[in-house]
Each structure stands twice: as C-alpha cells, then as structure tokens.
Amino acid sequence: MNEVMIREMLRFFYHELSQEEEASYEHFLKDNPYLMQIYHTYIKSLDNLSTVQYAPSQISLDRIMLYAQKGHLSTT
Length: 76
Known about the structure:
The protein has 76 residues and is mostly helical. It has four helices and no strands. It has helices at residues 3-13, 19-30, 33-51, 58-70.
C-alpha cells in the first residue's frame, strides 16, 4: 500500500473527508476486502494508542520536585 492510500485511510478514519469523499471511500473499502482488513487493523491500533496512559516514574517526579525546591538537581 502506498503513502497516498495510507493518508486517505487516515483522513477517512479521522472524518477529514468531505461527505462525498467519505461515501466514495467507504464504497471503495467495501469493494476491496484486503484494504478493509488493513483499515480494521488501523482502527484497532489507533484505538489502542488512544487508551494508553503515560505516567512518569516516581523517581522522575521526586527529581522534579527537588529541582523546584532547590533550583538544581542532585548528583545522586
């Protein structure tokens, strides 16, 4: 799959296409089972990314607080 197709698929996923383009792309996907499978894989991957939560480690938080209090990081 080329870069243009990937971009169009992502635009479709994020509803960045006009109504006419979206309807056309939806029919295009329905007529191409291989691309529909790739689209569903992208949907699952993007949904998983949106549920990932990042949090700094406690040591990072402690160093930030120490820096905020002292104005410099300790060397330990």
